[in-house]
C-alpha cells in the first residue's frame, strides 16, 4: 500500500511538472512601434523584448477587433466575437435593468478548459467581458473559469485610486476599499503572488494590463526615468509603458525563482493598435489607429516564448495570425482536447517550424458598419465611404488605394466577407430583454436546443 501511494504521488508530481504553464500577457492600446524589438529607442522595453528575442515574433500579428472588448471575447471564446454577439464593447456605459452586459454565459471560456483539466487559473488586470455596473456575478471572471481575480471589470480605471473612489478595483467578486500601489504595480504583485503560491499545479495565468490605456497617469518614479523626453504627453506614456515592462520583468523573476520559466508558454500581444490622439502611442509605419481597420488599428506587437516547447529563439514569422489563435495553441501545448466548433487555428506547429502554411486563408473584421478582410497580401476595407484595396506586401502603410486596378480581386474579397458575415449575430449589448435573440450553437452538447438569451 505504501509503495502504491508513493507511486501515485510520484506520477501526480510528474504530471504537474510535465504540463506547461500558460501565461498570456495582454497590453492595452499599445502601438505597433511602441516596443524595442520593433525599433523603439526612446523607451526601453527589455522584458517585452526578451519574449520576442527568446521566442517567435509575428510581423503580422493581429487583434480580432480594433477596440478592447471584442478582441478579448475572441481570445476567451476561440471564435470571431461577432458569432457570439460581442461585436461591440461588452459593457456599455448607458445601461439599465433590461440590458444584457457580458459575454454570453453559454460560451465556454479558455480558462474553463484549463480549470477542468486541473490547472490553477488566475486573472489579474482588466476583464471587460461582463459584470460591470449591474454587478452580475455570473458574468465575472470567477464564474468564467478563473480561481482568482484581482482587477477591474470595466474598460479603464484610475491608476492611483488609493481609496478606490471609483469602486472599480475588485478582488474575486467584491469591491475592495483600499489599494496602496500604482495599479500596474498591483497587477504585477498579484501575478507574482499567484505564481509563488500555485504549488505543484500547472497554471493558466491571464495578465491583461490596463496600461497603456488612458487615463494617462504615471508614478513619479517612472516620470523621473524619462525626464529627457520633452513632450509631456509622450513622457507620461513612456512612464506607463516602462511600469508595465518592469512588472513583466517581475513575473520573469518569479518564474525563474520557481524553476519553471522555460516550461511556461509566454504570450505577449496587444488588444488593438495604439491611439496617438489619446494615449500618445505610435503605430508607424502603419496607417490608422484604435477604432479603425487600417493596419494601425489592428496589427499589433505579438510574440511567444516557450523553449521547452521547441519554439526557437529569434525567429520572425510573416504569416498573418490572430490573437484568438492562442486559444487552440495553448490547449494543444497543454495536451487538452481542442473543441471542434471553434474558428481559431492552432499556430503551435507554425511556431515550432513544422509547417509554413498560413493559418487563415482569409481574415475578417467588422464593427459598427465598418469592415475589412485580408486575403494573402491583399486587404479590402470600408469605413463607410468608398471601399479601399491595398497590397500590404508592397504598401504596408496603405497609402495607395488600387481598387480600380484590381476590381476582380476586390469583388472576390467582398463576396468572402459577405459569406462570412451571414453567420454573425446582432450585438447583444443594448438589446432589451423582451427582444429574443438566438444564441448560436457554439460550445454546446450535441442535441441541446438553442435558447434565447435574456
From TrEMBL:
Keywords: Hydrolase. It comes from the Bacteria. It holds the Pfam family Sulfatase. Signal peptide: none annotated. Gene3D superfamilies: 3.30.1120.10, Alkaline Phosphatase, subunit A. The keyword Electron transport does not apply. Coiled coil: none annotated. InterPro entries: Alkaline_phosphatase_core_sf (IPR017850), Sulfatase (IPR050738), Sulfatase_N (IPR000917). One of its GO terms (molecular function) is arylsulfatase activity. Residues 20-336 form the Sulfatase N-terminal domain. Belongs to the sulfatase family. This is Sulfatase. It comes from Lentisphaera araneosa HTCC2155.
Amino acid at each position: 500500500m505504501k509503495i502504491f501511494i508513493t507511486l501515485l504521488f510520484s506520477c501526480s508530481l510528474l504530471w504537474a511538472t510535465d504540463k506547461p504553464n500558460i501565461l498570456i500577457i495582454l497590453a492595452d492600446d499599445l502601438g505597433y512601434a511602441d516596443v524595442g524589438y520593433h525599433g523603439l529607442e526612446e523607451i526601453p522595453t527589455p522584458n517585452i523584448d526578451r519574449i520576442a528575442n527568446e521566442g517567435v515574433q509575428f510581423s503580422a500579428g493581429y487583434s480580432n477587433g480594433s477596440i478592447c472588448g471584442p478582441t478579448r471575447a475572441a481570445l476567451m471564446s476561440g471564435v470571431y466575437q461577432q458569432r457570439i454577439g460581442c461585436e461591440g464593447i461588452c459593457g456599455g456605459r448607458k445601461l439599465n435593468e433590461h440590458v444584457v452586459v457580458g459575454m454570453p454565459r453559454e460560451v465556454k471560456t479558455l480558462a474553463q478548459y484549463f480549470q477542468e483539466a486541473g490547472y490553477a487559473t488566475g486573472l489579474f488586470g482588466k476583464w471587460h467581458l461582463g459584470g460591470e455596473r449591474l454587478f452580475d456575478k455570473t458574468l465575472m471572471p470567477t464564474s468564467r473559469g478563473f480561481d482568482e481575480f484581482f482587477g477591474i471589470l470595466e474598460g479603464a480605471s484610475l491608476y492611483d485610486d488609493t481609496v478606490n473612489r471609483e469602486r472599480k478595483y475588485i478582488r474575486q467578486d467584491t469591491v475592495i476599499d483600499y489599494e496602496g500601489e500604482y495599479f500596474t504595480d498591483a497587477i504585477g504583485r498579484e501575478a507574482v503572488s499567484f505564481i509563488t503560491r500555485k504549488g505543484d499545479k500547472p497554471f493558466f495565468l491571464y495578465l491583461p494590463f490596463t496600461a497603456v490605456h488612458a487615463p494617462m497617469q504615471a508614478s513619479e518614479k517612472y516620470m523621473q526615468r524619462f525626464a529627457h523626453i520633452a513632450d509631456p504627453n509622450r513622457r507620461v506614456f513612456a512612464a506607463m509603458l516602462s511600469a508595465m515592462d518592469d512588472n513583466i520583468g517581475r513575473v520573469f523573476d518569479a518564474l525563474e525563482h520557481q524553476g519553471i520559466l522555460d516550461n511556461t508558454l509566454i504570450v505577449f500581444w496587444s488588444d488593438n493598435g495604439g491611439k496617438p490622439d489619446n494615449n500618445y502611442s505610435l503605430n508607424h509605419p502603419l496607417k490608422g489607429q484604435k477604432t479603425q481597420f487600417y493596419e494601425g488599428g489592428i496589427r499589433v506587437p505579438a510574440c511567444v516564448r516557450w523553449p521547452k516547447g521547441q519554439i526557437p529563439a529569434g525567429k520572425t514569422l510573416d504569416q498573418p495570425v490572430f490573437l484568438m489563435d492562442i486559444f487552440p495553441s495553448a490547449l494543444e501545448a497543454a495536451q487538452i482536447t481542442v473543441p471542434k466548433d471553434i474558428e481559431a487555428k492552432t499556430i503551435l506547429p507554425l511556431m515550432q517550424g513544422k509547417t509554413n502554411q498560413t493559418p487563415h486563408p482569409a481574415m475578417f473584421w467588422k464593427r459598427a458598419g465598418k469592415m475589412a478582410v485580408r486575403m494573402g497580401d491583399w486587404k479590402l476595407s470600408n469605413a463607410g465611404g468608398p471601399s479601399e484595396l491595398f497590397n500590404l506586401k508592397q504598401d504596408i502603410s496603405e497609402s495607395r488605394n488600387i481598387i480600380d486596378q484590381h476590381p476582380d480581386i476586390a469583388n472576390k474579397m467582398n463576396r468572402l466577407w459577405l459569406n462570412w458575415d451571414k453567420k454573425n449575430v446582432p450585438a447583444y449589448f443594448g438589446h432589451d430583454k423582451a427582444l429574443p435573440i438566438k444564441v448560436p450553437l457554439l460550445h454546446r452538447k450535441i442535441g441541446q436546443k438553442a435558447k434565447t438569451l435574456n
